[in-house]
Amino acid sequence: MTDFPRAARRFAILLPFAFLAAQPMAAQEAAVPASLQAEGEVPWIYEGSDVPRDQEWLFGELNNGLRYGVRENGVPPNQVSIRVRIDAGSLYENDNELGYAHLLEHLLFRESKYLGVSEAIPTWQRLGATFGSDTNAETSPTHTVYKLDLPNVDPAKLEESMKLLSGMVRAPVLSDGNVRTEVPIVLAEKRERGGVGERVAETSMKTLFAGQRLAERLTIGTEESLESATGRSVQAFYDRWYRPENTVISVVGDLDPILFASLVEKYFQDWSVSGEPAPAPVFGDPIAPAGADADNPVGEVAVMVEPTLPRAMTYGYFRPWRQVQDTVIYNEGRLREQLALQLINRRLESRARGGGSYLYAQVSEAKISRSTHATLVQFAPLTEDWQAALDDVRGVIADAIAEPPTLEELQRELDEMEVGYANLVEQRSVLAGSGYADDLVNAVDIREAIAAPETFLMVFNSMREKATPESVLAETRELFEGNVIRATYITPAAGEATEESLQAALSRTVMADGDARVAAQTVSFDDLPPVGEPGTLVERAVHAFGQVERVKFDNGVQALLLANENEPGRVAVKVRFGAGIRAFAPEDAALIQLGEAALIQSGFGDIGQNDLDRLATGRKFGFEFGIGEGAFTFDAQTRKQDLEDQLYLFAAKLGMPRWDELPFARAKAAAKSAFDSYESSPAGIVNRDLEYFVYGQDSRFKTATPEMLDAATLEDFRNLWEPALRQGPIEVLIFGDYDKEAAIETLRRTFGALPDREPIPAEDLNRDLGFATPGETLVRYHQGEADQAAAVVAWPVGAGPAEIRKSRQLAILTEVFNNRLRDAMREQAGASYAPVVRLDWPIDVETGGTVTALAQLRPGDVPSFFAAADKIARDLTQTPPTVDELSQATEPLRNYYERISSGNYFFLLQLENSTVDPRRMRSLRGLLNDYSQTTPEAMQALAQEYFGDKSGWRMAVIPQGQDLATAVSSSPATSGR
């Protein structure tokens, strides 16, 4: 079976605002196409399998060999998701075609039978699809998939889209001119992902898959192969693999699946290709090197010295991949593998938390690119003593191989697994159609069947009944069998390791270490102390509209509640409190960063992190912590049977926080380990420095240096965060499928039982977010490749809820800017799809909004980027955008918000903080109109307001050792590309 499947059901929250209600579409009548497989006939994907059929899928096969699957799904309403999978990826390339599979992906979007040059992206945008999310493609070693999520669909729009897709897949224009245009864009993509990351990926592939086709075929290809590509050579690759018998189409959405099948048949039935299909290449098996045996089992290894990367090791056991009979018994075995891995990973994590010699460690199992069935071990040594870390990890694994788990351990992991499968069944009616569409192509890729959530739960229950410590021990031993063992080690320090020392360390015997076994202890919520004396409910009223209710307790805590059955099995909980980033002073930067990593892991009261894990067994909890501009937040996705305990966890963290040394020390180690890696690429420097500089060198946004981290103490940490947890009003939002009256009683005993909140100090409330002073370009340096750079331009805009409706109009202008900049950089600089313009409009504070344009490019193209951004900003102030440009911006925005407005979480996000600031509540009205209706004149007025008299603030990130003028003059010319 493949990944978790999904199922369909229409739903909409009933609210008085018509623009928020998704309107279900009438079912479409269509004749049953002849290609649909008849009732009683085994669908093509289930041939040879006894996995129960998911009855909501309909399958068909055309006379030319093309196969398809279709199903109805109303989540989100009025959307149809289409996937066209071609059974050809980078492993199908000849030696002189490296990168062609991915290049073809670009070329199909470039020009095809029904779409002229560069018409694909704006055409999909006019149809409401957002490029990059709704309209996209992926190339892997084994396949190429073209993806379309079509919003606001009707039969005519669907047919037009299927026609356009058929033209792209069946009749792309693979001319020399198109190839010459797209190759620089693909090379730009290669450059942007290149440098240290590409070196590590390439060396890892060559080492871990030595002797196999996978070792020599990175999806991006090589410069030599791509630069020598011609229309004729690419056409030859296309003709060999783009054939109907190599194609699977998946269509899922809010229309009649018979209509889907009919359109597949209509636009692909007559697709015929001359000649016999080419046989798929032989991918090869992992083969042990000569001389490898039980006494010396380790084969290829590589030590990579990369001064800007943290230490990391991967080693694995590689076995041949073989096609399986996808049966229930086979899947029970897969679940036992999962169980065995969970047991080992919990022990590895327990060792790391307890002060082990590694920062993290994890074991996984994967069937990689139909080339190998591998068990991979990955970990990060805390220090240069990588051998001690390796021995620690191997010792934990050796114990798992030597002795069976205890019944208590087994029960715990089984309970954990059951939650996931049972919750999937609960939520099957509200899972997105796009996920179902992906499920089918992924199942085809791994050559397995597809199954309903009930089937997964049934197979799990069957496995659970048979699972014993001995059977899990046997499965564990199989995971670590094989005489093909390979490894890679990344280190920043030359001379720290050699290939010989790595082979020797992996070959030596280690002692089984049972100390990491997690002791069988029961921690029950029933035994936990109360948060405090239960509070008193003092107010209860309808909040704003519809079914949302506001309650208030005598300690000032307020909650917004929306209880319905629109999304079975889902409850979203969000807690807002405190002042957010405003609570901190400039000197607190390191402690702010450590709070994001260590605050939650420190537990509460007498409960540490391992105890939290025990409490979570058999439950669905979440505990995300965020530092916003104006508030701190706890977030969770839970379910109604676990809501009471979820609320207790959140309230206990506020009422009785715990301050543990080990999570704090581990967070420091992780931050120090990652620091140097920022300098490995322009993107790393942008991630490290952008907020700090764009906010006028506000040190609260400074990424902590190792020296700053070393200076931070647990006492400092507690002194900063303890008062921050006590301050400011608390707002709890609970939206989803739960019992409202029971939740109010739980709130009374948890959040209502907290002490009265301390006021936020006035100086915190007055800490505004500033903006950098525009002037000369700020130049920062990276230690990566000499042909890599990044550029940023930012303009200050508004913030806060007072002008939130203006921010939605500004989002339209930002999309227009984004479309123009993408086109300009692709044409002028051969850039890939990296250029992006984004709007940040903070809601909880009154300052700090920005429009930011950024891109990764060559150093010599930095001036072109700045010039293009300046020109677009200037042009928008002088000449309004065209109606067609606005359509390309507003249609995707309107459709995006129509889709997400059918879910509970959308309303939670819109209404958060409205108990404190009623403007949030009022701003909800008119949301869809604000994003979808505007005029060219309104856009010009906004451009004049925000771009007209302001120069953008600029930052360039260029290679170390160059100045900006040198970087520009030494780069290849880009004119005419």
Automatic annotation (TrEMBL):
Ranges for domain Peptidase M16 C-terminal come to 231-414, 712-889
Q: What is this protein called?
A: Insulinase family protein
PANTHER family tied to this protein: NARDILYSIN, ZINC PROTEASE PQQL-LIKE
Is the keyword Transcription assigned to this protein? no
Enumerate the UniProt keywords alphabetically: Hydrolase, Metalloprotease, Protease, Signal, Zinc
Q: Which family does it belong to?
A: Belongs to the peptidase M16 family.
Signal sequence coordinates: 1-26
Q: Which residues form the Peptidase M16 N-terminal domain?
A: 76-191
